[in-house]
Amino acid sequence: MISGKPLKDIFRDVREEVKRKLKESTDLADIKSVVFGERIKIGNLQTPAIWIVPESYTPELRGGHTASHDITFSFVVLVKTPQPQEGLEKAQDLAMTVYDVFTSDRTLSGLVSDVRPTNVDPAYEMGNSTQVYWSAVQFAFRLQRRE
Q1: At CB < 8 A and 24+ separation, what contacts does 83-87 make?
Q2: What's the whole-model pTM score?
């Protein structure tokens, strides 16, 4: 249970630890870029890349002035190649590796009470590119906070 810490600081700590885990994982050594945010220019992006997209969530109020926060991120793997089958399979393999990175430490280095997978999308689609292939996983990083 977290008490007395501003939500902005909690969110920042979770965000930075998520980025650190992805960048430092030896299983993701093929990843050339890790970017955070809702907007991205794909044309300049070095791939394979992981695009971290923050998602909305609704805090769940519990008794005793406590709320459960599921800070949620989608992790979209992008692979640019003129080979459709190769690109999609590489994106899928890397997205499943992202899944394994986060499920191997269900506390995110002690920052949260649970790391909860919420979605796996091996054929994630966005945009009209015929040379960028996507695959995604989504996680909620759960914590309890006195409010």
Answers
A1: 84/130, 84/133, 87/131, 87/132, 87/133
A2: 0.91
